[in-house]
Amino acid sequence: MRETELGAFIRAHREAVSPTAVGLPNGNRRRTPGLRRAELATLAGVSVDYLTRLEQGRDRSPSAQVLAALSDTLGLSRDERIHLYRLAKTVTGGGACDGAAMTRVQTVRPTVQALLDRLEPAPALVANRPGDLLAWTAGFAQLAGPTGLLEAEPPNLVRYAFTDPRAHDAHPDWDAVAEERAAALRAAAALGDPHAALLAQELMITAGPPFRDRFEGSAALPTRTGVERWTHPQVGELRLAYERLELPDPDEQRLVVYLASDEATATALNRLTDHQPAASSTVAGKG
Predict the structure, then answer these.
(1) Residue range 83-109, pLDDT digits in tens
(2) Of 112, 58, 85, 88, which is closest to residue 253 (Cα–Cα)?
(3) Can you tell me the distance from the alpha carbon of 121 to that of 141, in angstroms, rounded to the nearest whole number?
(4) How much is the pTM?
(5) Which end of the chain has less neighbouring CB within 10 Å, N or C?
């Protein structure tokens, strides 16, 4: 039954983990393969009674923290973490990271779209607080398209950084980008954005410690300006200075514009966008 699929998944993976893999003695008196329920509960920091109810389908609302701890202890892969998260959503009828189905504006004002059009061929985008990309220039599509960032619906900066392996290739300074993405999501969730909070809970499970450690381990705010390094399969490495501008809108969208920070990047961007170079094509003093 659907109510027990989550429990069956957890139990199957518990029984597949060798005690020695988690630092426990194997012993000769084990009646079942893998970890005992009490062992998994202790390692994951939950009670045996709670884990029993979860495996038996008698608990229907596991928290994101519990699922993340179980995922870590069981050594689940990225795909297995995603499956666990989806099973939890099915069991709870809305999600382990439960929340009302709130309407979220996924469009930009006509004047904002007109502004993006005027920024061509510069890479530029408009995102909401959880990091969903709402609109972008053709220049940004040429930059980000080959990296896989724009394949999701909607594309999301944070989810891509932490769950798509291609993000490590696209961003040579992945650690810095990951810190920045986590900081932006944490700030949005702290300000009460329910969608940011739901995404954070999702990534606690699906991305695991690389996200959780950054999300919980710092109170730093996202920067408004800086330099990001990108690697593009056609033109190689790019050093892009960015400016992040908050738009005056109840939906709290932000405009991010990328500019070449050196002559080599300016030349590469011009090749990428088939654009004739201008005298002021680089940003002095960046990076």
Answers:
(1) 888 788 776 665 444 443 456 678 899
(2) 112
(3) 10
(4) 0.76
(5) N
Residues of the chain with pLDDT under 50: 1-3, 95-101, 276-287
Contact 123, 140 (CB under 8 A): yes
